[in-house]
Amino acid sequence: MINSILLYIGSSLITVWGIANLIPTRAIVRGFGAISEDNKKIITMESIAEGITLCFIGVLVILVTSLSVFPDKIAIIVYLACAIMLFVMAILNTLTGARTSILPYKICPFGKQWDVLVLSND
Length: 122
What we know:
Distance between the termini: 11 Å
Strand content: under 5%
Largest sheet: none
Helix content: over 70%
Number of strands: 0
């Protein structure tokens, strides 16, 4: 029971974080100033890709948790795959976005690491 609650909390947080990544996309692109249209499209694509990836991971974990009977081997594989993906994204953010002066990018790896711990705990 506690495992399911933690999974719901962690997956909800990562979904909300994904939505929070999507909302400021225009402002992020504008923050780069006068850059080429191609660069604007690439930055927009990256921001949207990260947001929808986080939303997908969160929704996937919610669906698997609500539709499976614990302990389900497939569910455990999904949880571990999602945890690994979040870990990879956290490393990427640590090496790139966290080195900027933008506060949400600085704290992003820590949020993902917390969710990795929740997902890999099962």
